[in-house]
Design brief:
With 345 residues, the chain is of the alpha/beta class. 33% of the residues lie in helices and 23% in strands. The protein has 2 domains: 2-65, no CATH class; 136-344, Rossmann fold (3-Layer(aba) Sandwich).
Length: 345
């Protein structure tokens, strides 16, 4: 077995989906966010365009790539307009996503919510807060890779019965102690959750980290009730940001992102796992952070995910993000993330 700077690796020259030998997309990449060891390459399938890391770290050494990772950190925004943004999100979630009785929207907030919802990029930004899950009279929600539990805590406030799975012990402990959540510190394959139990399963920026994403999708299919929904959010390898920044694009994140998807490849994965595709699209809703960090990576102004950027950078990338939000209405494939919703039939 080969060793890559202390990480045991294996060859991964063939595509997960169609077994074709991949061609080099990028080579000689290092981790410029969290200083994980190794030099890595990305290959692209000449047939289906799936992108994957080569060589692959072996499962037993995956933890070596996450030494300084941030899953336990707080995710709240400190921007001056964060409070206003949160109020607008709640207004939209109350009117267009059905959570009004939980958020106690006033008549004024309902009007604001209806008006803001008419602007599709703003509606999309609000929808991201609940992973685009609408209220449906409650149900059991499983969040895979739940981090510090902030998303699950919010969804519990909105009437869901929630459970999380998190392989990072520190993140799982924070979710349990801070929010009192039921969080299982384990790998999904080892959890032993009941089959056909969950109404919805969410995975936000998780599937790209999986050694075998198809195995994860098959497991999700087994855990869902009939007509249950799986919502997957993952970086879009065909995004505008990737086209602009190339190897410095934040969505790559070598060596932790083992697979990178387009709408077509993610759709194929869900279909192979037995899901009926309800929707699959690209969104620019949360693209600002990707734009900013991509620029900082390109100019070597970021270490251990700590941003060192003047306001001129923030303003510039805010302008790029707004442009992407507007362009996404014309070219919907360019958004920084893919949102896929599959239904178990």
């Amino acid at each position: 077995m080969d060793v890559n700077d202390g990480v045991r690796v294996k060859d991964a020259e063939n595509c997960l989906l169609c077994d074709k030998t991949g061609t080099v997309l990028y080579q000689g990449l290092r981790d410029r966010l969290f200083s994980a060891p190794g030099i890595w390459n990305y290959l692209r399938c000449p047939d289906c365009s799936l992108v994957w890391l080569h060589p692959h770290p072996v499962l037993e050494d995956i933890n070596k790539l996450y030494g300084d990772y941030y899953t336990h950190n707080a995710q709240g925004s400190s921007l001056p307009l964060a409070s206003m943004r949160r109020k607008l999100e709640h207004a939209v979630l109350g009117t267009r996503f059905g959570y009004g009785k939980y958020l106690a929207n006033s008549p004024r907030e309902k009007i604001i919510g209806e008006l803001v919802s008419l602007i599709s990029p703003l509606r999309d930004i609000a929808g991201a807060r609940t992973m685009w899950l609408e209220a449906g009279g409650g149900g059991h929600l499983l969040d895979i890779g739940c981090g510090n539990g902030e998303f699950l805590a919010f969804m519990r406030e909105l009437g869901w019965e929630v459970v999380g799975v998190e392989p990072d012990p520190e993140a799982a402990q924070i979710a349990q102690s801070k929010f009192g959540l039921e969080v299982i510190y384990s790998d999904l394959r080892e959890v032993g959750l009941p089959k056909e139990f969950f109404t919805a399963i969410t995975m936000s920026h998780v599937i790209e980290h999986m050694v075998d994403p198809m195995e994860v999708l098959y497991t999700c299919h087994q855990l869902l009730k009939p007509n249950g929904r799986l919502i997957v959010v993952t970086p879009n390898v065909e995004s505008l940001g990737h086209q602009v920044f190339g190897a410095a694009w934040r969505g790559l994140e070598p060596p932790r992102h083992l697979f990178l998807f387009s709408k077509s490849t993610l759709s194929d994965c869900l279909s192979y796992a037995g899901f009926e595709i309800q929707t699959i699209r690209a969104t620019a809703a949360r693209g600002f952070g990707i734009w900013l960090r991509s620029r900082l990576i390109k100019e070597n102004r970021i270490q251990a995910n700590k941003v060192r950027s003047p306001y001129s950078y923030i303003l510039k990338d805010l302008a790029f993000w707004i442009s992407e939000l507007l362009l996404a209405g014309i070219k919907p494939q360019i958004g920084e993330e893919i949102v896929a919703i599959g239904v178990k039939r």
